[in-house]
Amino acid sequence: MADMSPLFRRKGPAPQDRLVTLIGKPGCHLCDAAQIVVEKVCGDLGVPWERRDITEDPQLHEQYWEQIPVVLVDGRQHTFWRVNEERLRRELSGS
């Protein structure tokens, strides 16, 4: 890789080294729709993901109750309410 031009080197972490967190709650139709997008994009790219429930975590509830669903990428907020598939894909692939 040392001989490779900087234009061809990966700029960010490999997809399998990323983590997507979907924060929501049961019975939330937007959360269900967001999960479909997260599952598709993460599955396509080999990115691990997790779902967190604000009804089981007081800190998450306090921080995000007005914004669910919320998507975090590597612990930083990426989006809330509606998840755009192409935007999430770009974020995770480094494009």
Main β sheet profile? 4 strands, mixed
Average of pLDDT = 90
Count every helix, treating DSSP H or I runs of 4 or more residues as helices: 3
Percent strand equals: 15-25%
Strand order of the largest sheet: 2-1-3-4
> Got a strand count?
4
Helix content: 25-40%
Instruction: Name the helix and strand elements from N-terminus to C-terminus, one letter apiece.
Output: EHEHEEH
Estimated structural class: alpha+beta
Q: Per the principal axes of the C-alpha atoms, what is the gross shape?
A: globular
Q: What does the radius of gyration come to? A: 15 Å
Quote the distance from N terminus to C terminus: 19 Å
Unreliable stretches (pLDDT < 50, length at least 5) are none
Short précis:
This protein is of the alpha+beta class. It has helices spanning 29-45, 58-64, 85-93; strands at residues 20-24, 49-53, 70-73, 76-80. The two termini are 19 Å apart.
Describe the structure.
This protein has three helices and four strands; from the N terminus they run E-H-E-H-E-E-H. It has helices spanning 29-45, 58-64, 85-93; strands spanning 20-24, 49-53, 70-73, 76-80. The chain has a four-stranded mixed beta sheet, sandwiched between helices. Helices cover 35% and strands 20% of the residues. With 95 residues, it is an alpha+beta fold.
